[in-house]
Amino acid sequence: MKRIYMDYAATTPTDPDVLASMLPYFSEIYGNPSSLHAFGQEAKYAVEKARDTIASFIGASADEIVFTSGGTESDNFAVKGVAHARKNKGNHIITSAIEHHAVLETGSFLEKNGFEVTRLPVDEYGLVRAVDVEKAITDKTILISVMHANNEIGTIQPIAEIGAIARKHGIIFHTDAVQTCGHIPINVKDMNIDLLSASGHKLYGPKGVGILYIRKGTRIQPLMQGGDQEKGRRASTLNVPGIVGMGKAVELAGENMSREAERLTILRDRMIHDILSKIKHVRLNGHPVYRLPNNVNVCIEFVEGESLLLNLDMEGIACSTGSACTSSSLEPSHVLLAIGLTHEIAHGSLRFTLGRHTTGEDVDHVLNVLPGIVEKLRAMSPLYKK
Amino acid sequence: MTVYSEKVMDHFRNPRNVGEIENPDGVGRVGNPVCGDIMELYIKVKDDVIVDAKFKTFGCGAAIATSSMVTELIKNKTIEEASSISNRAVAEALGGLPPIKMHCSVLAEEALTKAIEDYKSKRSS
């Protein structure tokens, strides 16, 4: 059976060129980049090359890039680090209701420690309105954190506009770009971004490595105390193979991004169109236009997402769902509830995220299989009355 | 590789006794769409023995598998025997469920209890 992976938003396979670039840094060039001898300096050279590549890719300078263990650490670092560094100025943070848990849970943690968090609602397409951001600002606001694009429904936020508002009011602006970095253009200067999180494994790089871009002059408290790596901003021996891999992945993304985005957008739109036309009682989640090139997210009424997912899995097709049945809280996705879906509709969500190895044939195959699965599950659903 | 046992996947893949029974002797409807699982259990009873059982379920893999299993467990059992089937027995018959999915087996037990109550109330009226 042919296996089809359509969960690229969860993680991507490491590119073979990326893997090849990393391998020498395990057992040949294994020095600690903090060491002064040649072993260390050779490793340091590779780290700084990766830093340069990533910095120029997002329009930053190299000393504004701090390597981390991934997107979650970068989000934690950004939100907690700015909150604590600026608490003399105020205690109010603005974010959105559809952020990744790495931002939302960090916000909840800070609330228990004397901070106040406003979670802005989104419209039916998952868009944060820039005017709402401005209205939420108080004289205590120290940080705004709004994601570049949503990991579940793919909606791309008006980041440049929100960044401009933050800048106007002298508030630090963080964006979680884990789903966008390497997939759609980002420029931290043009978009008025002060802090940006990105992750290696979402762009065909390795797991366990990420970055936080920190605009020069932005005060931030480190998450970890220890050595003075990363100019004292992040203690811990650098993950040299991971960093080299992420650098290579970003380099490759720079070469392929626009072509790949164009190709995926065509596949995405065909897939959305075919699902909506072949299956009744289906709705698209997320914005039809301001949308990640690879994201297809639909709710299929009268059936439950995990059952759909398992049936697709039995056919070799991998996707994900925002159904409560797959979460430990037994609550459906906070994103789907925030765009106004009822619980029962949200339970029937499926997310297909396409990527480098997705072909038109794969899309056709899913469309051949999915209607039958839906029909089978609807036949046993007490909610479905023909 | 799946998160469920082979037995669960077997009942999920080929659920037994899907559907409705015309003029059932007892019906149990439990769950609600908000929590994600809804189950309808239909029973046909003759001389105090459950001669047929069918179900319809909206829910996850565990909900469908436990629905299927409970219909198998109660068929050809007396009402009294069926009444004593617990959610644990359903889960055990399936070779166990992941801890977070145990509540799905409660759904099956509740549907069974309601169907039997329905049967008893119809008979006494």
CATH topology of chain B, by name, is Sufe protein. Chain: A
Provide the spatial order of strands within the biggest beta sheet of chain A. 2-8-7-6-5-3-4
- Helix percentage range of chain B: 40-55%
Give the CATH topology of the largest domain in chain A: Aspartate Aminotransferase, domain 2
> What is the CA-CA span between the terminal residues of chain B?
51 Å
Average of the residue pLDDT scores of chain B:
93
Shape of chain B: globular
Describe the structure.
The complex is a heterodimer of chains A (386) and B (125). Chain A folds into 2 domains: 4-10 and 257-379, Aspartate Aminotransferase, domain 1, CATH 3.90.1150; 16-252, Type I PLP-dependent aspartate aminotransferase-like (Major domain) (Aspartate Aminotransferase, domain 2, 3-Layer(aba) Sandwich). Chain A is built from 12 helices and 12 strands. Helices cover 39% and strands 13% of the residues of chain A. With 386 residues, chain A is α/β, with parallel strands linked by helices. The relative contact order of chain A is 0.16. Chain A has helices at 16-22, 24-27, 38-57, 71-85, 101-111, 130-136, 159-168, 240-278, 305-314, 334-338, 343-346, 360-379; strands spanning 4-5, 65-68, 92-96, 116-120, 141-145, 172-176, 195-199, 210-214, 282-284, 295-300, 317-318, 349-353. Chain B has 125 residues and is of the alpha+beta class. Chain B has a single domain (6-124), classed as Sufe protein. Chain: A (Alpha-Beta Complex), CATH 3.90.1010.10. Chain B is globular, with a radius of gyration of 14 Å. The N and C termini of chain B lie far apart (51 Å). The model of chain B has no long low-confidence stretch (mean pLDDT 93).
